[in-house]
Queue: 3 jobs
Job 1
Amino acid sequence: MAIAKADVESLVEELTLEEKIQLVHGAVDPEGTATGYLPGVERLGIPELRLADGPLGVRVNGAPATLFPASIALASTFDPELAREQGTAMGREAKARDQDALLGPGLNLIRVPHCGRNFEYYSEDPVLTAAFAGASVEGIQSADVIATPKHYVANNQELYRASVNVNVSERALRECYLPGFEAAVDAGAGSIMTAYNSVNGSFMSENRPLVTDVLKGEWGFDGYVVSDWFGAVSTVSSANGGLDLEMPGVSRDELWEMFDIEPPEDDDDTVFGETKDVSDGMPDMTNTGNFAEPLREAVERGDVPRARLDDMVTRILRQMERIGAFDEDRSEVSAEDDGHRELAETIAARGAVLLENDGVLPLADDVDIAVIGPGVEEISTGGGSSEMDALHEVPTATGIDARANGTVTVKRGVPPIEKVSFFGGDDEDDDQQPEPTLDDAVSAAADADIAVVVVEDAAAEAVDRDDLTLPGGQNELVEDVAAVNDNTVVVVQSSGPVELPWRDDVSAILESWYPGQADGDALAAVLFGDADPSGRLPVTFANEDDYPVTDDATFPGTDGEVQYDEGLLVGYRYFDATDADPVYPFGHGLSYAAFEYRDAELVDDRRVEVTIENVSDRTGRDVVQAYVRPSNASDDRPVRELGGFTAVELPAGETVTVDVDLDDLAFSAYDETAGWTALEGPFTIEIGRSARDIEFEVTL
Ligand code: GLC
């Protein structure tokens, strides 16, 4: 039967206390496909609810799906329309695999370059993050699947993530860390996942000020707030703080069934015990079932008001009603990935950022190429809950070999890079392959017209990178290859910023992040010029010591406390406020074409019209960026903030005028007593190609 909105309320009245409790904590999925599962209440026709990871595609055991590029690659396109398309595709694939909620997008701000999950997030800038968060949520939910923006809020590191207390000013929260989530709520997100960490003294699963007062009160969020897995730290404070659903919620005994492993002899604090070197970044998995029997008792004692429990259940049932879960004739969505494979390749190609190019790119079709690097025979992905089985994998070398007309020689050069996987990394049968040697790689490079060296980092959930140095002797590999081939192209498949010490010794550098399943095809399309590399950096690349998080107190924290002392000065805002120069600034990225900025004029106080011309002989893409510089920038306010951006494709020789809409956030300041206030004009609107490459200034 189709339940109308009104029925949800009457349904809640019919539910017994036990049935309500059953709806607010997870159980083991009897079909074993979901990451989180609610059994529903058959007596009243309330169906099951299945929640599945993750931000890069749907993980359902035994049902491979499209593995999209890392979220940081998607953000590099500066084209939120692609986020909407990707969200729609992932939503459809989730639905076709009988999942009702997708546990994404991940949209925490990229505060520190070392964070192990930067690849699952968008940017260091709140305006760019908000644009992608909103579009992604709209896409996912267009498929009648509940989006689950995560992790609310200030989960900007992995080390100690389940215990660290984030000390952050209200102003920095409001201006930097919250806007992405507010945009997700404005886009209609049906749920929000709370982070493991504490913010200003209370764990996010029981943080009443941020969950009840801001999220539900100020923003009017009417969906359900779900904990991160094992992140519901308590019963009464969490329920009364505003948490609505505990995941995975299973009892301790069910835990072993869920992970399909033998119960350990002693009560170790994580399911994985010491078998994983991620224990510092994992929650206490024995702290589970807080919204099961303990919640029923708390409600009976009156510690948790019955009205609060009813609200928790209402919020969940309302989302089920919204996605048609009660409808008997639920539309069966086809499982085929209709066009999703091409979309994943398009996003990976569009998200590649050309950092340097002396003209060696694009490649001629018939060149002889040496493809070198430890990971060229696999696709490059990050570790953790975003891992999944991809429908179509195209390893880096495979894609290049398929596209090239000349000879392609493949050499790994150095051993595979050690990676962390939550699902038991497929142990490559290394013994079948001869141990890679540097000499083999160097001689292959010497004999080829072009040497393409593909390097990678190894980021994963629950761990942060120790430094920004490429691991496993890859820097030496690049230097030795560049020494014997003047046409050395380096492709960096990384989770975020890395140091590039050899950047002056090579002919081109392409940052392709984790490209997802389309890896080799997307890279080949860019290398041979079938696609114009249109990516722009959503994060600042700099020498490690120049970032603002230089002492333990600011990252990863000391004695369980981390201080966000940099306040608003995250990313490019910090570099603008100090005399440290980035290696590659926020917004940087080259095209194979060439664009001249002809004119810029204000249409009104939130829109600029910019005229650009493609003065090259080939179609290309550019991203016109507008930065807002208030006249009264004080020492703790950013010099400039991204106000807006527009990605545009332009055929050779053509001229176009594009609109760049400016976000109110760039004109606003949050004052801890007065709340939101408008920054004082006059404002200088800077139009350019990056935060450091300004072409025009107009005064507002
Ligand atoms: C993990 C992650 C979260 C994921 C969830 C379910 O610990 O923090 O992003 O969706 O648990 O796997």
Job 2
Amino acid sequence: MHVLILGGTTEARRLAELLHGTPGLVVTTSLAGRVASPRLPPGEVRVGGFGGAEALTAWLRERRVGVVVDATHPFAGTMSRHAARAAATARVPLLALRRPGWRPGEGDDWHGAGSAEEAAALLPALGRRVFLTTGRMGLAAFAELDDLWFLVRSVDPPEGPCPARARILLDRGPFTLDGERELLRRHGVDVLVTKDSGGAATAPKLTAAREAGLPVVVIRRPAPPEGVPVTPTPEGAAQWVTEQRGRGPAR
Ligand code: NAP
């Protein structure tokens, strides 16, 4: 059975590791190609967009894909919508692998935002020195905030409009609590902006912000596609794939 993992996350890589070498399974991980040198999973890897939901449908049929696991990042909403449409049309079972979102704890001062634009609108009332950890895409929403200073952390250099007063820090998680405490201190950060990505690798910044008494603007996740079953762990997804074995290829 051919398994397609839509990847780009730690969980996707873990799932490929769990499935790799299982007799009777061929595993392909698909990456968007956004990161210059991604950490590659075992098994086959393809890179680049499919060209939309219809093209993905054709891809599933041509490659006789038996099951799809959408293990993309919780904020990769377009890919998840395309996957849901393509899998339904090609009649291929689809599972979403989504790490749970973060929850505020005692002492947290979180401010929810529905989008990067909403987050930008909240900032002037919350601080002047911003630690912006929303990734290199979507910085345009903050580009007009000339009175604020930004520490922008991303894996690859940002493209497109960026805040005028910004220091770019290229780094990739996992991050440590000590490292995050030190960053906040060294740069005099007084507010943090993050997506609700969930997971342990980038969570220490939230603890560091809580300890320092800093407000945190948390951008909420897009809604997942309706009707697609969700599991929170790679192990759960591997179990689901195993249960689907024996099904025929896509028609
Ligand atoms: P997106 O906005 O949902 O997707 C835009 C387009 O990129 C899709 O329509 C698709 O192109 C292509 N694409 C996305 N994921 C793909 C995949 N796994 N394989 C092949 N094509 C893919 O996605 P995004 O937010 O830009 O994220 C891109 C990738 O980075 C995803 O793999 C995601 O898991 C990873 N990532 C995203 C974030 C984030 O915050 N958004 C954070 C960490 C990692 P076509 O329509 O041409 O098929």
Job 3
Amino acid sequence: MKIAIVTNESPESTKVGEALKQKLIEEAFILTLTNPDVVVTVGGDGTLLNAFHSYVDQLESVRFVGVHTGHLGFYTDWRDYELDELVKSLKEDTSESVSYPLLEIELSYSDSDETKKCLALNEATVKNLDKTMVAEVYIKDELFEMFRGDGLSVSTPTGSTAYSKSLGGAVLHPRVNAIQLNEVASINNRVYRSLGSPMIIAQDEWIRLDLKRGDNYQLHIDHFVMNQENLSSVRLQLSEKRIQFASYRHTHFWRRVNDAFIGELRRKD
Ligand code: NAP
């Protein structure tokens, strides 16, 4: 089995990554960043996001495993003190995996007929850099509303615990094949009106944002931030591609949510 180890730059993750490397070499695994079967990330959810984009062209052949050097994350099933158990699981690997939905983003520009496509694991967010963003929001090619505000964000189910949650979005179980549209500071008054609530869009539907004001936008795709000149339209839909995680252990999703956001329950009498 060929394994790639991807760590973030913190001294702690580098140390854990080195320890894991030694253990894998002792067990005769092939360590390579080129065409691996399994990518093991050491760091946090952000490290996994980074690795996802590095191997985005190999999603059919690559499975991911996340080791967290802090608390348990949403893309990370292993803690840094569990390396021996992880190596044992890799040795006993049966190629089983669990997969999660991804977001497909298609970008159109006013000065070109060509479109650009990319994938997000957490979300895509569009913001106007200069003025209030004005966008016609289409759902499955039907005009739904005229949005005015700071921006609009569309997230995957696994991204629902990230930026989407800060925007007031619902937390979605990763088995729900849907995407979620969230407003960023919408203007709602007697003149301007948009729904003002998060919307869950079904698997066979898509969202199109036709940008109406200016041509200087900022596009956030997961941890990437890009200035986009002449951006005119953004189409967002659940991708046919999915990210695969090696399913060596199962962490109950709602326990993970509780652990990340609530913590120990204190019963009040
Ligand atoms: P970052 O500082 O690397 O990450 C921000 C935090 O989001 C980190 O604590 C990270 O966890 C956590 N995170 C990432 N994916 C998550 C997920 N699916 N569920 C729950 N928590 C998650 O920020 P960045 O590099 O700019 O952007 C990475 C992601 O962070 C973005 O995709 C966005 O969703 C999120 N973010 C959220 C806000 C916000 O809530 N206001 C602002 C900026 C970015 P780890 O510590 O485990 O890496």
